[in-house]
Specification:
Blueprint: H1 8-11, H2 13-20, H3 31-38, E1 49-53, H4 59-67, E2 71-76, H5 79-91, E3 98-102, E4 115-120, H6 129-136, E5 140-153, H7 160-169, E6 174-175, H8 176-185, E7 188-195, H9 199-219, H10 224-243, E8 247-256
Helix pairs in contact: 3-4, 9-10
Length: 257
């Protein structure tokens, strides 16, 4: 396959990061869903250490900071995301206990059992759900928590078009029951799971993207990678609108044994 026909994310990660850095959140979600996930977690205090893995520009991190007194470190592989993350923390006067650093989720620098919680909204897929659960476990204290949102099937049977779409985009997507089983096998007690509401996709994610896509296309006229990126984003939105009863994001909360 030549470069011209590759998906945009295969050869122009900088453009992908620039595009997504223009949004408050880099995936479907809402303050309400972040707060709901936190409601299943106890014993967080001003001495607690939280890592927000794949933090992006920090929309959900601000919610974590507002709802807890914990110290939070945001990790993202993209420097442009971390720059905006730290700017957002300063704007919200949170820089004294919240900071963002550039890093990879598959090579974290935390010490063993350093963290009271690992939080990751819509990002664990970058390493893989099962791999992330297992590899991140060693950084979490006993009785600490992991809280992640993950694309999941709502049904056992789906139309072939949406199955093919996800097998190409993220073959590890699985049913809710199988994801819960993976949490157990990775050494956590499943504390809760819930489907994030539809508006997190339609209003909070796709609507904001739709209003920005022409701006990004006009910034890079004739750029094939940008055109491919926007075409993929629009196709993804169409897939969700047509097949949303079959899949979505599910928040999973586990307590380390």
């Amino acid at each position: 396959m030549d470069q011209e026909n590759k998906p945009a994310h295969d050869f122009d990660i900088d453009l992908i990061c620039e595009y997504y850095s223009n949004f408050e959140r880099q995936g479907p979600g809402s303050p309400e869903t972040s707060i709901k996930a936190l409601s299943f977690i106890d014993n967080l205090n001003r001495l607690s250490q939280i890592a927000d893995i794949g933090c992006g520009t920090g929309g959900q991190t601000i919610v974590l900071a507002q709802q807890t007194t914990a110290n939070i470190i945001g990790i993202d592989i993209a420097p442009i995301m971390i720059e905006k993350f730290n700017d957002n923390m300063i704007k919200n006067n949170l820089q004294n206990r919240i900071k963002g650093v550039v890093g990879s989720m598959d090579n974290l620098s935390f010490k063993k059992e350093e963290l009271d919680m690992i939080f990751s909204e819509g990002a664990i897929y970058n390493i893989g759900f099962e791999r992330g659960l297992n590899e991140w476990n060693k950084y979490i204290k006993q009785d600490g928590y992991i809280a992640v949102s993950e694309a999941s099937w709502f049904t056992e049977n789906r139309p072939s078009e949406i199955t093919d779409f996800w097998m190409n985009a993220y073959p590890e997507i699985d049913t809710i029951s199988n994801c819960i089983s993976k949490i157990q096998k990775a050494g956590y007690i499943p504390m809760a799971s819930f489907i994030i509401p539809e508006y997190c996709w339609t209003d909070n994610f796709y609507k904001s993207h739709a209003s920005f896509q022409d701006v990004f296309l006009n910034k890079y006229p004739g750029n094939k990678a940008v055109e491919k990126l926007i075409a993929d984003e629009r196709y993804e939105a169409r897939m969700y609108n047509e097949y949303k009863k079959y899949y979505g994001y599910v928040f999973y909360i586990g307590k380390k044994i």
